[in-house]
Write a structure and sequence with these properties.
By secondary structure, this protein is α/β, with parallel strands linked by helices. It has helices at 4-8, 50-57, 94-99, 114-126, 142-156, 172-187, 199-205, 222-225, 228-245, and strands spanning 10-21, 24-35, 39-43, 65-69, 77-80, 160-164, 191-195, 208-213, 215-221. It has one domain: P-loop containing nucleotide triphosphate hydrolases (Rossmann fold), CATH 3.40.50. Helix 4 crosses helix 5 (142-156). The longest helix has 18 residues, at 228-245. It is globular. Bound molecules: adenosine-5'-triphosphate (ATP).
Amino acid sequence: MGDANAMSAIAIELEDLTVGYQRHPAVHHVSGIIAAGSLTAIAGPNGAGKSSLLKTIIGELRPSSGAIKHRLKATDFGYLPQAADINRRFPISVLDTVLLGSWRQARAFAQVTSAELQKARDALAKVGLEGFDRRGIGSLSAGQFQRVLFARLLLQDAGVILLDEPFTAIDGGTTRDLLEIVAGWHHEGRTVLAVLHDFEQVCAHFPETLLLARQVIGWGATADVMSQANLRKARAMAEQWEDGICRPAR
Ligand SMILES: Nc1ncnc2c1ncn2[C@@H]1O[C@H](COP(=O)(O)OP(=O)(O)OP(=O)(O)O)[C@@H](O)[C@H]1O
C-alpha cells in the first residue's frame, strides 16, 4: 500500500492505460495523475479517445492493458455523457430525472422523502429551471435539458465529476451559468474533468489540461499544454489515423 499522505492528494492514477475496441486502441499508453480537487479539461481532435477515457474511468469500459488506480466507490463518480448518448424519448418528468441523482441516498423502490424533493427543487432553481418540474424531458430545448442534467449532478453530490462535452450546442448564456456551477464544484474541492472542444473555454476556465491524441500530447498547466506546437502535434496525429482508415484516391 502507498504512503497514505501522498495518496490522499491523488484522486485517480492512470498507469500505462490502453483502451481499445476490437483490438483497435482508442487510448494508447496513457500515464498520469488526476489530483484530488483538480479542474481539468480533456482536449483533442475527434476520435482522440476522450470519451473512451471517461468511460474507462467510470468503469463502463475495461482497459485492454494498464490500470486505473483509485480508492473511490462507483457512487463517488458523477458522469454527464455526451448528449448524443442520451435517449430523451423516455417519458419521464424533469423532477424525476433530477431525483435520479439521489439514488445513492435512497433505497431501491423507497419513497422519495420530502427532503429529497426539496433538494431536487432547489437544484432546479439553481440551474434556472424553477417551475419546470412536471415537464417531460422530451419537450425541453437542448440547453434546458443540459441544465436538468446539471441539476441531477448537483443532487448526486459526487466527489469526482466527469463531463463529456457539456457545452456543445449550448448557447452562451447557458454555458456561462453551467461554467459557474463547474467553478463552484472546484471551489468545494471536488475533482472535475471535462471533455471540451472550445479552446477559449479551456484556457479561461480550466487550470489543468490533458491534450489527448490517443496518446498524451501534453498534461499539466493549461497555458503550457495548449501551445501551438502541441496543438500542431495533436492535429498531425489525427491526420495520420484518418489516413490509415481511408487513403485519398490518387
Ligand atoms: N463503441 C465503439 N466501437 C468501436 N469503436 C469505437 C467505439 N466507440 C469509439 N470508438 C472508436 O474509438 C476511437 C475514439 O473514440 P472516442 O469517442 O473515445 O473519441 P473522442 O475523442 O471522444 O471523439 P469526439 O471528439 O469525436 O467525440 C474512435 O476511432 C472511435 O471510432
